[in-house]
Design a protein that fits this description.
By secondary structure, the protein is mostly helical. 78% of the residues lie in helices and 0% in strands. The protein is built from 13 helices and no strands.
């Protein structure tokens, strides 16, 4: 009896683990904007060192926990890596040029684009229930944006930062779709991330050499923040969400990431003295309620499906 129960639990865990992995990734990503805003060096220097110190860590992980790193892995990952590099530069820049609330919340509009793109490009089913819960989350996002102005954050708000955040959102949407398609080929997560990082280093090096005037000037505090960026939002956050992409609809996993702006805004209030209004707090609650509906509707949809799965079901592939 206990053996049967254990087998049942083992079958259930993979179906819940992807949602948990994305939530943990969002928690890791939430501290990233705080690290970037706390650095004293320029944007090209931040991007260059962040990627360069990440590369050897991923290379070791690819050879110890993954499938190594070969030309095949690079061929699969370099295209997503280009979009990842552009998204990183624009995202980091937006954290420096506008409020954390605005930068992260504009970036969270990715699901709105995916609601229209995912069904056509990826063949994923978008239900009316998911649309309703998505709209609830978006209402909360709007409330947080409006609340940022009433909280007196205009002194750190800039149109350039908002524009960079918007560009980051569009490019990240493309990256999400391209990465999903690449992961469906079965490439190991660590090997995939190594290829993405290598592409980033190749692109960031000439930019840093030409545009940076403080490439060798990071302080000990800057180095600590760069290492923390690599370990927490970098290695932990991106690994978890990349792994989960093979087990979740793209729209669902992207909607869960709406939790990030709420957490980042709270951290900006605590560590960067960026004010939070009551409207923002209420908006954050609405976002969380909408996300809870998305997760519950996804679990309910899975439980009503037949236990018989086709050979294309990613849950049959144990490759992380």
């Amino acid at each position: 009896m206990s053996t049967a129960a254990n087998q049942t639990g083992a079958m259930q865990r993979p179906r819940r683990a992807p949602e948990a992995a994305v939530i943990m990734a969002v928690l890791a990503w939430a501290v990233g904007p705080i690290f970037v805003s706390s650095l004293s060096v320029s944007l090209p220097t931040i991007v260059f060192w962040r990627q360069l110190i990440w590369l050897p860590v991923l290379f070791v992980l690819a050879h110890t926990l993954g499938d190594g790193f070969t030309r095949h892995h690079l061929a699969i990952s370099w295209k997503p890596g280009v979009f990842f590099a552009l998204s990183t530069a624009l995202g980091f820049g937006s954290f420096q040029q506008t409020t954390i609330a605005n930068a992260t919340l504009i970036g969270s509009l990715t699901p709105a684009v995916l609601l229209f793109v995912a069904p056509r490009l990826l063949g994923e089913k978008i239900t009316a229930q998911r649309v309703v819960y998505s709209l609830v989350s978006f209402v909360g996002v709007v409330a947080v944006v409006v609340g940022a102005e009433s909280a007196g954050a205009s002194s750190v708000h800039g149109l350039l930062g908002d524009a960079m955040a918007f560009g980051n959102m569009l490019i990240w949407t493309v990256y999400f779709v391209v990465a999903k398609q690449a992961r469906d080929e079965g490439v190991n997560t660590w090997s995939f991330l190594t290829g993405i990082c290598l592409t980033n280093v190749v692109l960031a090096t000439p930019w840093a050499l030409l545009a940076s005037d403080d490439l060798l000037a990071p302080t000990p505090r800057d180095w600590l923040l760069l290492v923390l960026m690599m370990l927490i939002p970098g290695t932990t956050g991106h690994y978890l969400v990349t792994w989960a992409q093979r087990y979740l609809d793209t729209t669902v996993s992207s909607l869960i990431t709406l939790l990030g702006p709420v957490l980042s805004t709270a951290l900006a209030f605590a560590f960067l003295d960026q004010a939070i209004s009551l409207v923002q707090v209420l908006g954050g609650v609405v976002v969380l309620l909408g996300l809870g509906g998305v997760i519950l509707s996804t679990s309910a949809a899975r439980s009503t499906k037949s236990d018989t799965v086709g050979t294309a079901d990613p849950l049959l592939n144990s490759n992380p």
